[in-house]
# Entry
Amino acid sequence: MKIINGEGAIFGRLATVAAKSVLNGEQVVVVNAEKIIISGNPKQIVAKFKVRRSLKQKADPEKSPKFPRRPDMLVRRMIRGMIPFDRSTGRQAYKRLTVHMGVPDELAKQLASAVPVEKKVPKMYISMSDLSRELGWYGKA
# Structure
């Protein structure tokens, strides 16, 4: 089992490590999902995600893709985009991915052995919890 600590980690670098690991057959757990950051202009990032959430099929809006608001589910959905989900290998890999907000009690002791992800802070960024609040999430983080 591979544990990845998302505190201060850039999302793209974290997601590539997680996606490659689940495709290789490893169980991956991402903790502190609300503290992951996305580099770039925050206003543009929020606008992009709002457009993505508002896209609906004209014929049947109920069959449109669903994009979550909660940080842990949003991270899991974004990592899904890096996996060939339309194939059975991708679906099996997606089942091996678990994402948590904060650190669960059963993983607190194992957090010291978490996989290191580069944590270089860019000039402009937005955290997953701030992005989720902009999308309409009212939870605590």
Summary: Helices lie at 11-23, 42-54, 71-80, 88-95, 128-134. The chain has one domain: 2-54+65-134. Residues 11-23 form the longest helix (13 residues). The CA atoms of residues 41 and 106 lie 36 Å apart.
